[in-house]
Amino acid sequence: MWRVILHSDGTVRCWNNSPVTIVKHVKYRECCRNLACRIGGHIVDRCSEFVAYGAEGTSAAMTCATCGCHRNFHRKEEQIQLVCTCSSHPTTGTGGGA
């Protein structure tokens, strides 16, 4: 595990003042749409993962090809990765670290 420093201006830097890039990965998982909402029940489709119906940037990309629901009905999973550009970091270079 390595340390990063969050500066007051919003920049993130490594312990040796090298810039750190924040990479955000977003995946949409199973469908959580309640199909029995009108009758007071709770039944979900549970298709396993969102699969875009069209190309990225089109309106069809917001529709799931598996269940036909809008992407917002699928559980959103975010992963944030910090990528250090310094050569002395154990995971990005050959020097330093235990």
Automatic annotation (TrEMBL):
Originating species: Glycine max
Annotated keywords: Cytoplasm, Metal-binding, Zinc, Zinc-finger
Keyword Zinc: yes
TM region positions: none
Name of this chain's protein: ZF-HD dimerization-type domain-containing protein
Any one GO MF annotation of this record: transcription cis-regulatory region binding
GO biological process entries: regulation of DNA-templated transcription
Lineage, opening ranks: Eukaryota, Viridiplantae, Streptophyta, Embryophyta, Tracheophyta
Alphabetical list of InterPro entries matching this protein: ZF_HD_homeobox_Cys/His_dimer
GO cellular component, one term: cytoplasm
